[in-house]
Amino acid sequence: MAVIEQIIAGNWKMNLTLTQGQGFIDTLLTRLKGKELSRKLLLAPNFTLLSALAQRCAGSGIGLVAQNCAFQAAGAFTGETSVAMLKDVGAEYVLVGHSERRQIFGERDDLLRQKVNAVVSGGLIPIFCVGESLDQRQGGEAFDVVISQLRCGLAELPDSQLIVAYEPVWAIGTGRTATPEDARSMHLHIREFLVSQFSWGERVPILYGGSAKPENAAELLAQPEVNGLLVGGASLNPESFLQIAMA
Ligand code: PGA
User: Fold this and answer.
1) What is the tens place of the pLDDT at every residue in 220-242?
2) Is 167 marked active-site?
């Protein structure tokens, strides 16, 4: 089995102003001084903070993630932000297919596939999010739903760097976390799929997301199938983000 460095990614969603984001980074960098972290840290602030935070994070090893991107490369698409623009301001990764994009903004599999491809051809790394709803889990469809999301979203992917995030929709922002056992068995399924599709499927980090917090991080990260966490609410505070990173 390939050895994969664990990743702790914070998704700030539509929270934190520029001043608050800069304050977060300053606190984080101060706390990290002199510490050897064995995990890679990523942060996904709003577009408007990327440029300033990239300057603040330069040389720290902290990677920046955009929360969304356009599927087109350039042109008359008012309100959209291209991958080249994100790269230009220092983003290295892009979240694609977060359940809030799927549910609230109606982003469907074929659009997400185009976004994944835009990210890869633009030279950034997609963090492709998948996850089932509560109804789907209760109906015994969780595995099928997640594999189908992967099959569609990654259908045309060339050999590339990729991160997958498994985020059961019923666990996002609800305080309800998947048990380590649930996370483990879904991650195993996802890994099997990736290995069956891609010669490099063993190298893809698979993160868990959904009410990850300092209290449950160690237990989740102790599962060998869980290569890291995608953290929403608990990433808004540098202290709890750091507690997770060091769990
Ligand atoms: P949460 O969000 O940690 O607040 O549940 C996770 C996510 O949406 O990425």
Assistant:
1) 999 999 999 999 999 999 999 99
2) yes
